[in-house]
C-alpha cells in the first residue's frame, strides 16, 4: 500500500513538474499569435540571402501599424508580391520578431 502511494505521489509530482516547465517561458517575454489582413509594402533579404522578410501594413487599421515578418520558406517569399493584400497568421514578439505561419492571397 505504501509503495503504491509513493509511486502515485512521484507520478503526480513528475507530471506537475513537466507541466510547469512546459508552460513557462524562460525570459517571461510575451508571445503573440496574430491573424489579420495585411498589405505588403516591402520585401527584403539579408546580404547572404539567409534571411527573408516582408514589411506589411495592417489592413484592418487596428493600431498594429507596420510589422516586419520573417518568411522562413524561400518559395513562399518568392510568391509574395508587394502592394498585394494577404490574410496571414504570424507568431512571435516585438522584441524577438515575428515569423510567418500561414498566408493566403485576398481576392481584390
Automatic annotation (TrEMBL):
Q: What are the UniProt keywords, alphabetically?
A: Signal
Q: Does the keyword Signal apply?
A: yes
Q: Which domain of life is it from?
A: Bacteria
Q: Where is the signal peptide?
A: 1-21
- This protein is called SH3 domain-containing protein
**What taxonomic ancestry is recorded?**
Bacteria, Bacillati, Bacillota, Bacilli, Bacillales
Amino acid at each position: 500500500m505504501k509503495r503504491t502511494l509513493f509511486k502515485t505521489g512521484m507520478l503526480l509530482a513528475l507530471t506537475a513538474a513537466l507541466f510547469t516547465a512546459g508552460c513557462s517561458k524562460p525570459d517571461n517575454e510575451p508571445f503573440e499569435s496574430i491573424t489579420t489582413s495585411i498589405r505588403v509594402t516591402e520585401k527584403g533579404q539579408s546580404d547572404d540571402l539567409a534571411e527573408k522578410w516582408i514589411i506589411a501594413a495592417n489592413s484592418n487599421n487596428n493600431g498594429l501599424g507596420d510589422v516586419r515578418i520573417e518568411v522562413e520558406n524561400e518559395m513562399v517569399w518568392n510568391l509574395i508580391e508587394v502592394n498585394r493584400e494577404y490574410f496571414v497568421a504570424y507568431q512571435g514578439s516585438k522584441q524577438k520578431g515575428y515569423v510567418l505561419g500561414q498566408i493566403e492571397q485576398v481576392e481584390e
